[in-house]
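Good morning C.,

I know you're traveling, so I'll keep this short. The sequence:
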Amino acid sequence: MALNPTDLFDIRSLLSEEERMIQDSVARFTDQKVLPIIGDCFDQGRFPKELVPEIAAMGLLGSSLPEKYGCAELNAVSYGLICQELERGDSGIRSFVSVQSSLCMYPIYAYGSEEQRQKYLPGMARGEIIGCFGLTEPHGGSDPANMKTVAKKDGGDWVINGAKMWITNGNLADIAIVWAQTDEGIQGFIVEKGTKGFEAQEVHKKMSLRASVTSALYLDSVRVPDSQRLPNVKGLKGPLGCLTQARYGITWGPIGAAIAAYTSALEYSKERVLFNRPIAATQAVQLKLADMARRITLAQLLSLQLGRLKDAGTMQPAQVSLAKWNNCRMAIDICREARDILGGAGITTEHPPIRHALNLESVITYEGTETVHQLVIGREVTGINAF
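The tokens, ready to paste straight into the viewer:
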């Protein structure tokens, strides 16, 4: 039997029946609903928010959280497969789900009060309440401890001043999880849309994640009651814990982008005839395609084992760093090579490689740049902090 070009090691056989069903359902959604429109959305700089109700109806928002809050309570591998299949469509679609699930619903669940969970999580799972995550600031994102946004206690309220930058979903969001310095360390606050002094401004002129909403958040003496503070965490471990959840999903997402670019190049190479034979018959193209298949296979195995570790409760943040570093680099390199195989046709959104390559310039940067994750591994193996 011939091997599956996108699954040379039959990794699918390692999945449970439920995991395979989830992957197949999200793959169908991507094929039927995302791929027919996503090129135009990218061209137009438009997030297809009309897809949100169906994404929610499929149980993809907060999918790892408990059923008591209206969520699907899936395992970590299932969440990873969701991210892979959504990013096979576009990084912007996967980013929307990642932010809603891992950066907004997760901190409310992990760090919030029961009242906050009941108030927000069911509506977020239904896609009726959209969230954004306010951590990164205009002066830089790789040093969150140097946060300039501050929250001061004033009676039973908190007054927040500051600005956040590169915020996915910002102008879509009904709530923002805003992290701020307080006299007791960094704390998280749920800031609702329409609160006086709170404003989101969409970022335009992007060449990456064009089918995603990216915003700046401004907080000018924003007053929120103490009931909107996340009570169960203080310090950097709060936002960093959220980022570990989101980065885990990101290790899977680029595999989908890489598969989309690779299969596009593979199909094109069999149809494109030069010098009386398809370019797939040339050694140069076969070497590139073989290398793509090798790197995708390694990334699949890496993320699957990471997911099994997460489900076992033994996953370490450094392991997430290694997988994000490897898989983002793998995907961006494959997309560039695939674009090259497509020649001139590869620069249009009629084919996915250039769109995915541009998107991955953001994915390889956000939630920890490649350099940051390399240094995390360097620290892990040497015991010396080089930050």
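Safe travels,
E.
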